Amino acid sequence: MQLSLRRLLPLLLLLAAASLLLALCTGSHAAPPEALLRALLGDGDPLTRDIVLRLRLPRALAAFGTGACLALAGAMLQALLRNPLADPYILGTSGGAAVAALAAMLAGLAGSGIELAAFGGALLSTALVFGLSSAGSPLSPPRLLLTGVVLAAGWSALISLMLAISPDTNLRGILFWLMGDFAFASSPWPSLLVAAAGTAGGVLLGRSLNLLTTGEMQASLLGLRVGPTRSAVYLLASLLTAVAVTTAGTVGFIGLVVPHLMRLLSGADHRRLLPAAALAGGSLLTLADTLARSVLAPRQLPVGAITALLGVPLFLYLLRRADPAARQARRAK
User: Fold this and answer.
1) Which CATH entry fits the domain spanning 5-323: 1.10.260.40, 1.10.40.30, 1.10.3470.10, 3.40.30.10?
2) Please, what is the Cα angle at 34 between 31 and 37, to 5 degrees?
C-alpha cells in the first residue's frame, strides 16, 4: 500500500517525535512526562535534568542522525545497483570506514582525524567494489553485490587482526564501538547536519537516481550524464556512511531494511523516498538504541546487535523474494 508524501510525512514526523520522547523518558532513572518537561525547560530535579539534557538527549539525537545517514546511504546505493539488497554494511562501505577509523584510533588520532580517516576508508571501499566488479567487463549489479560481500569479509578479517594487536585495556570499548554503541557519541550535530545535507542533496539528485534505476544505458539515452552522477552519489553515500561509523561504529541492516520498507509505502520516486527513509531510519535506530540501553539496565547492549536481530529475518525474506526459482515455485502453488 503506497501513501502520498502528504500523508506519509506527518506520520513519520509523529514517529520521530515519539521515538525521541521515549528515548528521553526511558532508562534506569525514570523520567515521567511532567519531570521530563521540567527538565527540558531547565527546571525540576537537578539529577533528572542532568540525565535528560547531558546524557539522553545528545545520545537520542546522535542515534537519530546516524539512522538517517545509514538509511539515506542505503537508498542511494540500492539505486546505483538496482538491487534492494544493497546497503553500506553488505557492500563493505561500513567495513572500510571502520577499518580506517580503527587504524586512526590505534595511531592516536582523535576527533576530525578519525572522521577524515573513516571518510577515506568508505570512499576507498566503494571505489574498490565498483572498480573490481567492472574490471574488463560492463558493470553488472549482481557481480558488484558479490564483490561487495567478499570485500566486506576482507575488512572484517582486517578488523580481527587489528583487535588482536590492540592493547587489552582498550579492547572492550573498541569491541562495543564496532558492534554499534552511542555511549561515546560526544556530539549529535555532525550526524544531524550531514543527514540533513544528505537528504537535501538526495532530493536534488532524485530525478537522476530515478533514471539510474532504469539502467545506465537507458539513463544515458534519456540525457543523464551517468559518470558524474554516479561519482556524486558515491561521494555522498561514502560521507553519510563515514559519519555514521565515526558516531556509532558499525551498525548493520538500517540501510537495508528502511529503504525497502519506505519504497513499499512511498513508491520508487527518490524525491519522496529519501526524506521518508531519513525520518524512518532515524526513528528506528533511536528506538533500537533505547531498547539496547534499557532492556537490561543498567547494563547496555550494543545497538548493532538489536538492529541485526530486526534485519536478519527481513534480509532472508528479501533473498527469497529475489530468487527466481522461489518465485516460480510460489506461482506454481
Assistant:
1) 1.10.3470.10
2) 85
